Structures are given as structure tokens and as C-alpha cells.
């Protein structure tokens, strides 16, 4: 019996993708460095091309989270939704947003959400608490599902001395999160390697990034990629083996390296 190679390919459980690097909310210690990131918009054609390539390596992706930054700052967020659904018809597709721009989103966006059966994944920060009911009702009127997460704390995760045991720090991170990250035709074990450049530039630090996993490498099939996603990298030496939790707050544009750094 002949089986299509697609039937033999493994599933990728999860992937994150930034529509924008920047944000409209300056959360202290944002894990993706969005308050100190440059204004940058993802290219929808490159995204579709990269997802198509992933579809050659994986039978499906369990959950695709389109985020940022703030994804609704992108001029055409609907183009990413449409591509993701066309290429991965069974995936759980989510737009991860702070919700501040939902009522200003275009009808094209809402129609794409309905057609693709997208879930609006709202990070409900304190600033949105008073207007949350109104925003949730608006989403209901658009006939789009909503999942809300009350965010009350952030984590300091960086060990600036870079002397962590990479195996221990990776194991600790994976005990809390599984967050493969797609950026510029590469998969990363998490968002830190491709985004830490913003932290380095802002605070004159030298946390190493990582080359990532080239999804167009013909020698890498799905199982090989999955194995690499479970392999510690040089950046892991700069992640703490335990994180420090602190109450969520806005930075008010006063950024300090210590907002991200764990005191060892």
C-alpha cells in the first residue's frame, strides 16, 4: 500500500508568528521586547510562502498564534488569517491581542475571522478591565469566538551573566512553555533568539541569538526539525534556571534592563 508522504509527516504542535514587532502598550518587561522594538510589519506573502514550506514538513500545526507586538497594528492582519487557514485547514488559529484596537478593526478583518473560524485570544491586562465587557460583547456581535486570559504578572527570565547550564534552563523553560517561533523562514525554540537584538541594542548587552532552523533546508524533515526544537542553544546560557514573577505594570516609556533580568 502506498502512503502519501503527507500522511507520514509528523504534526508540529504549536507555532508563534509576529505580524508586528512593535506594540501600542508599553508593558514592563515584555517577553518579546515589543515596547523597545523597532516598527516592523511582517510581509504576508513571505508568511504564506513559509507556511507552505512547513506544510511540506508537517501534516498539520496544532495551534498557530498570530501575535506581536500588537497584531492589529498591521495594515492587513486578515491576509495572514486567510493564508493560515488555506494552508493548514485544521489548525487552531488565534489572533493574540491586547484588545485595544478590536473595535477599530476593519470589516475585512472580521470577515476573515469568521470565514477561518479564528479565535480572538485577548490578553486582558489591567488597563482593559473596565472596558472588557464592551469589547467581548462587540466580538460576540461579530460572531467570532473569544478566549480571554487575565494577565496579572510578567516574568524576569534573562540571566545577564550567561552562566546558566543550558540543559537546565531549557528544561525549566519547557516545563512551563512550548513556544516554537517562526521568523524569516526559520523556526526557533522560542521568541528570544530572534528578538533579543532589541534588548541588546537598547541596553548595550550581548546576549547571543541563534541561527534558527532553516525550514528550506532539504536535509531536514519534520522529525529532524522537532528534535532540533528540543535541543538547547547558546542563548539558553542567558536564560535563568528559574524565573522571577512580578506584578504587571506599564513601563511609562522608562525602560531598564533590570525589568527583564533575574538577579542570581
Question: How is this fold's topology laid out?
Answer:
Elements: H1 5-8, E1 12-18, H2 44-57, E2 61-67, H3 77-87, E3 92-97, H4 107-116, E4 119-124, H5 132-141, E5 145-150, E6 153-158, H6 166-176, E7 181-183, E8 186-188, H7 192-203, E9 213-214, H8 222-228, E10 239-247
Parallel strand pairs: 1-2, 1-7, 2-3, 3-4, 4-5
Antiparallel strand pairs: 6-10, 7-8, 8-9
Helix pairs in contact: 2-3, 3-4
Overall 3D form = globular
- Low-pLDDT regions: none
Oligomer class: single chain
| Cα-based radius of gyration, to the nearest Å | 19 Å
Mean pLDDT score: 95
In short:
This protein has eight helices and ten strands.
What tags apply to this protein structure?
single chain, 264 residues, TIM Barrel, two-stranded antiparallel sheet, 10 strands, 30% helix, globular
Question: What does the model show?
Answer:
By secondary structure, the chain is an alpha/beta fold. Helices cover 30% and strands 21% of the residues. The protein has helices spanning 5-8, 44-57, 77-87, 107-116, 132-141, 166-176, 192-203, 222-228; strands at residues 12-18, 61-67, 92-97, 119-124, 145-150, 153-158, 181-183, 186-188, 213-214, 239-247. A hairpin with a 2-residue loop joins strand 7 (181-183) and strand 8. The termini are far apart.
Amino acid at each position: 500500500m502506498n502512503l502519501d508522504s503527507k500522511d507520514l509527516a509528523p504534526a508540529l504542535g504549536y507555532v508563534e508568528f509576529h505580524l508586528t514587532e512593535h506594540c501600542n502598550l508599553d508593558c514592563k518587561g515584555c517577553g518579546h521586547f515589543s515596547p523597545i522594538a523597532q516598527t516592523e510589519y511582517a510581509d504576508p506573502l513571505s508568511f504564506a510562502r513559509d507556511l507552505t514550506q512547513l506544510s511540506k514538513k508537517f501534516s498539520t500545526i496544532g495551534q498557530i498564534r498570530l501575535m506581536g507586538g500588537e497584531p492589529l497594528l498591521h495594515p492587513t492582519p486578515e491576509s495572514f488569517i486567510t493564508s493560515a487557514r488555506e494552508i493548514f485547514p485544521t489548525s487552531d488559529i488565534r489572533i493574540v491581542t491586547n484588545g485595544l484596537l478590536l473595535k477599530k478593526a476593519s470589516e475585512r478583518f472580521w470577515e476573515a475571522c469568521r470565514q477561518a473560524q479564528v479565535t480572538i485570544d485577548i490578553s486582558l491586562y489591567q488597563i482593559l478591565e473596565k472596558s472588557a465587557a464592551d469589547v467581548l460583547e462587540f466580538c460576540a456581535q461579530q460572531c467570532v469566538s473569544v478566549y480571554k486570559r487575565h494577565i496579572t504578572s510578567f516574568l524576569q527570565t534573562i540571566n545577564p551573566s550567561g552562566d546558566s547550564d543550558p540543559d537546565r534552563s531549557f528544561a525549566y523553560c519547557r516545563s512551563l512553555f512550548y513556544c516554537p517561533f517562526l521568523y524569516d523562514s526559520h523556526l526557533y525554540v522560542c521568541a528570544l533568539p530572534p528578538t533579543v537584538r532589541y534588548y541588546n541594542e537598547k541596553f548595550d548587552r550581548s546576549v547571543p541569538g541563534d541561527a534558527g532552523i532553516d525550514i528550506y533546508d532539504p536535509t531536514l524533515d519534520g522529525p529532524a526539525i522537532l528534535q532540533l526544537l528540543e535541543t538547547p542553544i547558546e542563548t539558553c546560557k542567558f536564560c535563568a534556571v528559574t524565573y522571577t514573577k512580578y506584578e504587571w505594570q506599564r513601563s511609562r516609556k522608562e525602560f531598564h534592563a533590570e525589568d527583564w533580568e533575574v538577579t542570581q
